[in-house]
Amino acid sequence: MASRVEHPAAGYKKLFETVEELNEPIPAKVTGAIPSWLGGSLLRLGPGLFEVGSEPFYHLFDGQALMHKFDLKNGHVTYNRKFVRTDAYVRAMTEKRVVITEFGTAAYPDPCKNIFSRFFTYFKGIEVTDNCLVNVYPIGEDFYAVTETNYITKVDPDSLETLKRVDLCDHLSVNGVTAHPHIEADGTVYNIGNCFGKNMTLAYNIIKIPPAQNDQSDPIAKSQVLVQLPSSERFKPSYIHSFGMTDNYFVFVEQPVKINLLKFLSSWSIRGTNYMDCFESNEAMGTWFHLASKDPAEYLSSHKFRTSAFNLFHHINSYEDQGFIIVDVCTWKGWS
Ligand SMILES: [Fe+2]
Fold first, then answer.
1. How far is the CA of 307 from the centre of ligand 1 (A)?
2. pLDDT digits (tens), the chain, 336 positions
3. 54 CA to middle of ligand 1, Å?
């Protein structure tokens, strides 16, 4: 049975603050001059709620998703913000406690439940967060707020109201996808995530979501796995935050930062484990560069390159130049 234990970060210094959402847009203070021809809306996502009841969210990545909107018109700017009504947010606000485990904050069982119902809750399955605080991007005519799990949340870019949650697992064989897809000029969305393929073999799937459909149907319903890339380790996918794409190729960097899936599956919630606890590093594997062609979509197994261990979050740019693929990535050495 889990018991409420002091979090290692208890007594932590508060580095971030909860803010209130707004009921209506407010005028923004403009420094300098915004050209009058510049108009439109800028949407941004970020964390905005760091306490619920008496419980804190410990990590910056755990704050509940707050969507910001800047409307630019005739040199003036108005600003609005609203929390996304994810399951994680709504249940936390309703129960006044952390209900869904976040990256660095473990959720504890409902103290109102007796020991037997708590026991069965553990084995009902892992409740993966839908706290979409990382990014917002268009799919077809719609806008989705996202994190790195299998859940994406459709939002209204005008009112900032939350419309619906979509489970990508209903449409695709992926455990989750990155918050940094590539979107082509016609609206086609490409992304990558890990998955268990045939015979429970771990792999990485590049997915494709088509642009807006003439018949107004949901493009997500027509999404597909385009190409599968192999994993160097059977139960430990590399953490993927972004990937590269050129006109004709996908670039995937398989880094030494690993997610220990056995740890993830076995110790979840029983020991108050959070996502962060399931990360580890295997520097001995080095770093692998994988390539796949776009059309036809094929894994290029003969073009797999290994280099020394480094870690990365963001691909900066990838492009083709005189028969080469140039990959610009922001990296650091060592996992600590
Ligand atoms: Fe990022």
1. 23
2. 333 434 445 555 667 899 999 999 999 999 999 999 999 999 999 999 999 999 999 999 999 999 999 999 999 999 999 999 999 999 999 999 999 988 888 887 655 554 444 444 444 456 889 999 999 999 999 999 999 999 999 999 999 999 999 999 999 999 999 999 999 999 999 999 999 766 678 999 999 999 999 999 999 999 999 999 999 988 899 999 999 999 999 999 999 999 887 777 765 555 567 778 888 999 999 999 999 999 999 999 999 999 999 999 999 999 999 999 999 999 999 876
3. 30
Q: Do the beta carbons of residue 193 and residue 175 sit within 8 Å?
A: yes
DSSP state of 309: -
Distance 122 CA to ligand 1 centre (A): 31
Q: Which residues pair with 139 in a beta bridge?
A: 142
**Overall size of the chain counted in residues:** 336
Q: Mapping DSSP to helix (H, G, I), strand (E, B) and coil, where does residue 81 land?
A: strand
Nearest to 138 by CA among 48, 64, 67, 212: 212
SS3 195: strand
DSSP 190: E
Closest CA to 12 of 58, 67, 62, 65: 58
